[in-house]
């Protein structure tokens, strides 16, 4: 009977760990990409959960009941989703900034399907998305993300989740970071294209015979790509620092 009880408790603990890991794979950047087959995600989640099982500190009661298991399963899923979603917000910010740039350059009509997020994405937004993904991998963001997952079992043991006001405040701060990053990425090109629009207005008043609508489109595209080329190193440095800051703050978010 002791062996049967031990096996049952061990299996249920493994299921709870698996739920937290699986929640991470739903929203996590790169790891939870739509281009990764579901079978690969499921297999990776099961292997990672099995590897984390010896290092977890479960607070499983002596008597396992169905209500406890339901509450614990929901809590573990929420923790995994929270970690993955917080890490993915930077990619959302990059897409938002790219969308603003496309609208100013006149490329918004040429939106394409982004298979990584399974949504329609602007051209510049998709470029920045892939650029951010390369930076994420270059700074070993996937390693930091998995380390945050491992650390979450120390700060929030299995079955002890309790959402607090501190967590809500940190999530609101992350949403503010989304708009900050989007503005920082799009500001140089939006400002340059605004100056182009003003210049085109003066040209239209000076040379009314010129078709500004026909001339303006290629000028805006050329200026937009030129500014993007010159600002890309600075944007890459800014994104690397921001991604590192967000990922390093994940343990504090989970501890909240």
Explain the layout of strands and helices:
Elements: H1 2-27, H2 38-52, H3 66-105, E1 112-114, E2 119-121, H4 123-138, H5 141-155, H6 165-206, H7 212-248, H8 250-255
Antiparallel strand pairs: 1-2
Helix pairs in contact: 1-2, 1-3, 3-4, 3-5, 3-6, 3-7, 4-7, 5-7, 6-7
Give the number of domains: 1
Class by SSE composition: mainly alpha
Strand content: under 5%
Mean of pLDDT = 76
| Main beta sheet | 2 strands, antiparallel
Note the overall shape.
elongated
Rounded radius of gyration (Å): 24 Å
Written description of the protein model:
This protein has about 260 residues and is an all-alpha fold. It has one domain (about 1-255). It has helices at about 1-25, 40-50, 65-105, 125-140, 140-155, 165-205, 210-250, 250-255, and strands spanning about 110-115, 120. Strands 1-2 form a two-stranded antiparallel sheet. α3 (about 65-105) runs parallel beside α6 (about 165-205), α3 (about 65-105) runs antiparallel to α7 and α5 (about 140-155) crosses α7 (about 210-250).
């Amino acid at each position: 009977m002791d062996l049967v009880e031990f096996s049952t408790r061990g299996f249920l603990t493994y299921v709870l760990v698996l739920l937290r890991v699986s929640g991470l794979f739903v929203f996590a950047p790169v790891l939870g990409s739509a281009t990764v087959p579901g079978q690969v995600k499921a297999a990776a989640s099961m292997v990672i959960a099995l590897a984390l099982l010896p290092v977890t500190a479960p607070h499983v009661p002596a008597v396992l009941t169905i209500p406890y298991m339901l509450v614990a399963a929901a809590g573990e899923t929420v923790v995994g989703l929270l970690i993955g979603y917080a890490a993915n917000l930077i990619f959302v910010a990059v897409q938002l900034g790219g969308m603003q740039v496309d609208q100013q350059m006149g490329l918004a009509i040429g939106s394409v399907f982004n298979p990584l997020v399974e949504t329609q994405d602007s051209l510049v937004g998709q470029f920045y998305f892939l650029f951010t993904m390369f930076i994420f991998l270059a700074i070993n963001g996937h390693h930091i993300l998995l380390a945050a997952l491992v650390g979450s079992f120390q700060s929030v043991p299995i079955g002890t989740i309790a959402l607090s006001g501190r967590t809500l405040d940190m999530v609101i701060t992350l949403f503010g970071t989304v708009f900050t990053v989007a503005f920082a990425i799009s500001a140089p090109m939006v400002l340059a294209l605004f100056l182009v629009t003003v210049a085109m207005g003066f040209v239209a008043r000076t040379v009314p015979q010129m078709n500004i609508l026909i001339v303006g489109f290629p000028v805006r595209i050329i200026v937009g790509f030129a500014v993007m080329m010159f600002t890309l190193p600075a944007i890459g440095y800014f994104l690397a620092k921001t991604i590192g800051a967000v990922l390093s703050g994940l343990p504090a978010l989970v501890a909240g």
